[in-house]
Automatic annotation (TrEMBL):
SMART domains: RRM
Entry GO terms, CC: cytoplasm; nucleus
Protein name in UniProt: Probable RNA-binding protein 46
Pfam families assigned: DND1_DSRM, RRM_1
Transmembrane region(s): none
An annotated Gene Ontology molecular function: RNA binding
The keyword RNA-binding is annotated on this UniProt entry: yes
Keyword flag RNA-binding: yes
Length: 490
């Protein structure tokens, strides 16, 4: 325990000693009956609480707390979070110096208590001018494994992962968008617990581990979005994946209308997946049962209900409640991985990974300059008469792509938040009015930037990725993009 910290009484700060800190924590333990132990960079209060019988609470009962003042401890934090319900376990992340690391995990005994904590404590002013962020936290049991040979089948990958790691439950492998006989060069490995996944990641992550003679890439997969059952009962949109690139929206609509003519309202296809909107939920559920596993243009499709975004919690998680979204949006699919950027967020020399996969390096854009000689003839042209390989900027490429498709120009909307160290972080939301009435009504990356130019470029890159037009554009992620904290996105 360090020698000095801050005690807060009636909003006023004063220095208190390490002995006073210990006394305050001991008083909390005596009052509540909870135990407290510090290990592996975190201090656990409870887990289980006194008198608890049975298994721990299920998934969805834990919340992530960010932007905690570094000199604030359980004696101040626990009473605040007890307002939402009974705490099963409070885990405060600790520095070696004795300060906290600015974030914690609070597990309640029920999901309802966790949701209440998010509603009443997100953006709560825990000290004068100090606001905490609270969102749902999910134990991630899934790893991303990249650089897998594309000819390997699911069974081969599953057997190999079971040989080298423990606790493997399943492997998720997606077929290539252009060649259904091959995988996309990556897989998602599901483990029986977060601990099993963490142990496997620790074993595989050094970068020297090989599968079938290939050095693999390993990272946490982005967790699935949790959507409450009541919301899912209202969904009347289907997510359809594993389509052929050549399959048209009209062909998809015709296939899904076969079981009941006129049931489909509209179809929005993006690359090899699509959203099928129905007029009635009953028709959507029936079509899902009938069409799942059917072949369209020679491809066996997978059909699930599209998961709606919980707009309030999603935006709170992304930007600490400073954005009020004004349009309906749907998750791109039931499993987020297949179509969203999965970024390591570690260094600029890491190529952006598409669909959880490292993108192939496109040809280097020729950027040489040439001398201008007197008498050289210059011809006025429009930028839209050029080819896409003339653009090195994602912003320019997106503008060009919209013009080429006779769409309205992209509209950029700027938002900001503040990091724990006081930096202003920026993010753009892009709306393309022509397609805004589709299932993907706007595009926003899940990373924040420190400069306006980088934020705009990243947003354009992200939008192009979702439009399936990223493969010929850019090589590197922006080095100034700041990934959101662990579990903050969910």
């Amino acid at each position: 325990m360090h020698d000095e910290s801050t005690d807060v009484t009636n909003g006023c700060s004063k220095v208190r000693t390490g002995t006073q800190n210990e006394a305050a924590l001991l008083a909390l333990m005596e009052k509540t009956g909870y135990s407290m132990v510090q290990e592996n960079g975190q201090r656990k209060f409870g887990g289980p609480p006194p008198g608890w019988e049975g298994p721990p609470p299920p998934r969805g009962c834990e919340v992530f707390v960010g932007k905690i003042p570094r000199d604030m401890y359980e004696d101040e934090l626990v009473p605040v979070f007890e307002r939402a319900g009974k705490i099963y376990e409070f885990r405060l992340m600790m520095e070696f110096s004795g300060e906290n690391r600015g974030y914690a995990f609070v597990m309640y005994t029920t999901k309802e208590e966790a949701q209440l904590a998010i509603r009443i404590l997100n953006n709560y002013e825990i000290r004068p001018g100090k606001f905490i962020g609270v969102c749902v936290s999910l134990d991630n049991c899934r790893l991303f494994i990249g650089a897998i040979p594309k000819e390997k089948k699911k069974e081969e990958i599953l057997d190999e992962m079971k040989k080298v790691t423990e606790g493997v439950v399943d492997v998720i492998v997606y077929p290539s968008a252009t060649d259904k006989t091959k995988n996309r060069g990556f897989a998602f490995v599901e483990y029986e617990s977060h601990r099993a996944a963490a142990m496997a990641r620790r074993k595989l992550i050094p970068g020297t581990f090989q599968l079938w003679g290939h050095t693999i890439q390993v990272d946490w997969a982005d967790p699935e979005k949790e959507v409450d059952e009541e919301t899912m009962q209202r969904v009347k949109v289907l997510y359809v994946r594993n389509l052929m690139i050549s399959t048209t929206e009209d062909a998809i609509k015709a296939e899904f209308n076969k079981f009941k003519p006129g049931a489909v309202e509209r179809v929005k296809k993006l690359r090899d997946y699509a959203f099928v909107h129905f007029f009635n939920r009953e028709d959507a559920v029936a079509a899902m049962s009938i069409m799942n596993g059917k072949c369209i243009d020679g491809a066996s499709i997978e059909v699930t209900l599209a998961k709606p975004v919980n707009k309030e919690s999603t935006w709170r998680q992304h930007l600490n409640g400073q954005i009020s979204p004004n349009s309906e949006n749907l998750l791109v699919f039931a499993n987020k991985e297949d179509g969203h950027q999965k970024s390591l967020g570690k260094s600029a020399n890491l190529s952006i990974r598409l669909n959880g996969q490292q993108s192939p390096s496109p040809p280097e854009i020729e950027r040489c300059t040439y001398p201008f000689f007197p008498g050289t003839k210059l011809t006025p042209i429009s930028m839209y008469s050029l080819k896409s390989n003339h653009f090195s900027s994602a912003v320019m490429h997106l503008d060009y792509y919209c013009n080429k498709n006779n769409w309205a120009p992209p509209e950029y909307y700027l938002y900001s938040t503040t990091s724990q160290d006081g930096k202003v972080l920026l993010v753009y939301k892009i709306v393309i009015p022509t397609i805004a009435n589709g299932s993907q009504s706007y595009f926003m990356p899940d990373k924040l930037c420190t400069t306006l130019e980088d934020a705009k470029e990243l947003a354009a890159q992200f939008t192009l990725l979702h439009l399936g037009k990223f493969n010929n554009c850019f090589k590197e992620a922006l080095c100034t993009a700041v990934p959101l904290p662990p579990n903050w996105r969910n």
